[in-house]
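Memo subject: From amino acid sequence to discrete backbone structure tokens
Keywords: amino acid chain, backbone geometry, structure tokens, three-dimensional fold.
Body of memo: The sequence and its backbone structure tokens, given next.
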Amino acid sequence: MIFLNGMKPLPTLSPLLDSHDLPEGYVGLSVNGTAAVVCQWAADAVRDIVTRQTLHQWAAGQKPNEQFMGRGINYGVLLPAGSQPGATTTVVVRRNRHGGLFRTVTGELFTAPSRAPLELANYLRLASAGVNTPELIAYAIYPAFFNLVKCDVVTRRLPAGGDFPQVWQQTGPTGREQLLVAAASLLRDLARAGAWHADLNLKNIYIAGQDADLTPYILDIDRVSFPPAGDIAAWNFARLSRSARKWQRRWGLDFTEKEIERLAAYTKEIH
């Protein structure tokens, strides 16, 4: 079992998933060697899918589906489950993949039980602290060979919007001030939660809404940890500033030192 930040233990890949070890509202499934953890209201739908194929294969075959490029192709689809009988839920289904140096070496393969249990634990802790991040509805782990597995994750699809660089490029000067305020608010929320994001870059901030009604979300939360000490606010800001300078240098994003200074000022002003 895996113990995370004082939370209840989450399951490793096993044919037996003890419901007493799962976070409240989630159940464990074991189907033909696949281990899954899923919100109770979506359990029947996920069980039906993984009986026949992986979640990612299922999403790829849905008509219609919307494709999003990340480390691979992610799919926006309708999951046939919801809070009411007969309801559907808009979700994004992704296959977990390594980035960086491991991308070409291990690709989709992870040591069991993959990053998914950590991502679920982080989601629950961030959400309980008031940090906006996509709801994790389910994950499924598929044995590959030896102690290696593949993993799919299902999250609730966020409201209409885009990642920070995309929205920044599409927004005029007045709107950009609101974007800086939204990003600063997210940085403050992360600091209050004690959450350090080791890969906090501009693309990992998603902005929903428009005009002054903006909601920022943090993505890639499997890279989040909760150090017991340290200046987490400064660490997160330094990481984001580094990303902004990289975007300016490599891809010509007009996010300059002036904007970085204004972001710092807004971060200090927001309470």
Q: What stands out?
A: The radius of gyration is 19 Å. The first strand starts at residue 26 and ends at 31. The helical segments are 43-52, 55-60, 116-128, 164-169, 173-193, 232-251, 257-269. The mean pLDDT is 89.
